[in-house]
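Supplementary material to the annual report.
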Amino acid sequence: MPVSAIRTITKNQNGVGAFILQCKRIDFHYCDWEGSSKGMRSFLRSRLADFARANPAIEINVSPRPRKQPILRGVYVNGRDKQICVRNMEPTQIIKKCELLRDASGEPLRRDTKPVKSINESVRGVWSPYHGAQFKI
Amino acid sequence: MNLPGSGILVRVSRSAEMDHVIAETATMRLVKMAVLAFQLAGCEYQPPVGDQTCLGYLPRVADSSQGTLHAPSSLQPQSSQRPIGFSPSSSSGRPPPSSPSPDDFAHLPSPPYNVARDSPRLAALHARLSLPTRFPVETLQRCLVDASADPSPDFNNASLALLGGDLLAYHVAEHVLCRYPRLPMAVLFAAQYAYVGPAVLSQLRQEWGVELAAAPGGEVDPGLLVALRVEPGTDLSRRVGTGRPNEEKHNWRRGMPSRIVYDDEFGDLKGRAASLVKSPPPGGSDGASTLPVSEPTPVTVEEASTSFVRAVVGAMYLHCGRISTLRFIYNHVLSRALDFSSLFSFTSPRRDLVRLCDREDFDPPVARLISETGRHSRHPVFVVGIYSGRDKLGEGAGGSLNEARTRAAVAALKGWYLYSPMEVTVPSSVEGSDKDKKWIPNYVDPGEVIV
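Predicted assembly:
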């Protein structure tokens, strides 16, 4: 066997080529009666259609959740979900939360200490003490 | 004893009573999903009649557009064997109900085509993949029906997946071969597997946000991938129907030339797992009843995902043409990152390098020490270069002279095999009516080093 191969798979680079929106579904839960859902009910009547039209890649489910606080639940392609309670919020605040869910990747929030990440090899290479001009005393 | 310190507090007030009454008598309705599907505007393209993607949904459009489209009934799929949802052309004569319940389709093996337009999940998938409006959601729904769920070739994705699989294999092969003309055959198979193998297509299905239905049936959401899955613990190692002459000898060695002839584009065996293929009943020589066509074979999730992604590519080719398909394959498959140098595995790189230099009439390779430190210490480092005459072929660093020399030989071999021409014209880029692009022949290599 002169040369054999190691099987691997290609790595996704979302946005290089195709971009897939990571949020695949948003569930809107509201209560018909409670005061904390007042803003949510108004949002569902007036704003939701525009939001859905602007984001066709997101499946939108609306369902009542009687006697509970209104919540938004985003489901992501990585299998995770994100819930936001929107009790006592105005429609303008709720639409901000919807945009937050839409723009999220679904990954848990974590602090990035290194701002640049890359799968590419460094162009400059790793410094080596054995190459280049040697220091002579 | 309604004193503040008694621990018993009875609130008697009119507003409290009213709140209580309202809370008790709040109108309770059944919890039901309200579905908003705004995404379907502008997707009314119908494939030509007689096209193999035509699912027989032309009459529905003809009804809505006051008879401007008339499909001859002879070109419709034969729906006599099986009712296709609530087709207006069915013999029952009653008007189609506006919103049929999913339970009406429970007797079908897969969801009927005419519920595809009512599924927000399918519409969202259509938009998420940025499919053109010429790609109908009905075809997308058909792509989601695996042959294991619905054995009828009119309704499953087998034909689309066959076409899409060939397209994917061809375009990846030309992409890899033209850019890296010296890749050995094993690495070429591995590269093909890395781009369009079942593992990566299965992952692609996940990244597209497509989920699997628990079990096939007509009542499932059309946006779910429908497949009959294998039982856990099924042995999938032995395969039958591979096309190899001695396929019952499953532990025979398979060399590279025979893989090119007999096996699939990844060098893997064709055919199905032996435990899943139903053996014909003994003495079953009674003609056509023994044909294994109507018996669905269960598949793994990986196989179902593979056929779904391939079917989307095949349907893209049929509905939207070659250019759109090329762009789709580039955007979703070829734009993924792959480090080709990580695909190699050498067992005797120094010997290979000697044979290579011999074949190419280079001077025999000589390893020379370039630099070293701490030879007698706990962690010595040696930097060794491999030279052919005055040319340095490769360089490697290691903890011993032998390791550094081997690493240098591997670097030299990878430098040879991973040669990539600056200008590449892939054959598919000059096909069609694109006259301004000129065919420039590509570099063809004599092949890998035979030891």
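The radius of gyration of chain A is 24 Å.
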